[in-house]
Amino acid sequence: MTSSNLHHLPQVRVATYILQMVTPRITEVKQLTEGHPAENETLNQLKIKSSNHGNHSTEERFLLLGFSDWPSLQPVLFVLVLLCYLLTLMGNSALVLLAVREPRLHRPMYYFLCHLALVDTGFTTSVVPSLLANLRGRALRLERGGCLAQLCASLALGSAECVLLAVMALDRAAAVCRPLRYAGLASPRLCHALAGAAWLGGLTNSAAQTALLAARPLCAPRRVDHFICELPALLQLACDGGGQDSTERQMFAARVFILLVPSAVILASYGGVARAVWGMRTRGSRRKAVGTCGSHLTAVCLFYGSAIYTYLQPVHNYNQRRGKFISLFYTVVTPALNPLIYTLRNKEVKGAARRLLGGVGGGQDAQ
Q: Mostly located where (predicted)?
């Protein structure tokens, strides 16, 4: 068979066409990889920029591992967290209702306690829904915006509680140390101003910390061994360089201020209370003063102990595995215990609850 006849075969025509199409492409690839080093360098730079952009991209999600490394513990924690959350909702709602409905509780102490109940309810609500979802199965993925929103809400309410506990300590010190002038010192206008300052201080600290964190590039992989987007855990994802040390120092200074300044106010207030109690002559007066301040001091120790451990240690020393259990305590357990702490030994609150329940029962009997 001659060469001209061979070209008319269908198989040969297809093979020839393929060779004509593929050969130029092979030549181009060879030139790119071997013959043009400058172009190769440009391509590599583009790949590096693309990789860096992927590391710093705001579209990436955060993977919250939660307690997925403790699968046998997850069902127990789910029941415990749900129970604490229900207790928080019911206990704090009851406190607010009693403080509003009962005229005998229209006093500064219960006014601030009402605000504390609202803060605790919001604080635990900003954490528990995502935590319960995490405890039902595998790790939870959150968009960057959702993670920052959760951080902003929990920081605002947690910071507000720091300031509010200091305000309540001042109120207790005024009641014990200046009982005759207490009514004039704790005027409604001053109480409203102090409560507003607590909320405003929390929002200001949260806005500043969240803005500083949002401006920092966070490197992949965005795996957080925690159940919430908590500041120390997120700071461990921050990329190095670019003046980041200065930003971290500013954020640490803000945390020191929002924790240590209220702590100093609380210590000074209870120092005055201790001196006043020491100078009391009757045992009944001492018992009443200790009962008035004891419940608040218990709440302060529970909240500040875990918060100071979490936020006032260097970021590189923060242990996420241990930190998530401590965070579980002050975000879920403490808000559930606060209503019990403030009411178990408080005769006025228990009496108001009995009168309210008696009024409801009497109204139903009359119908």
A: membrane
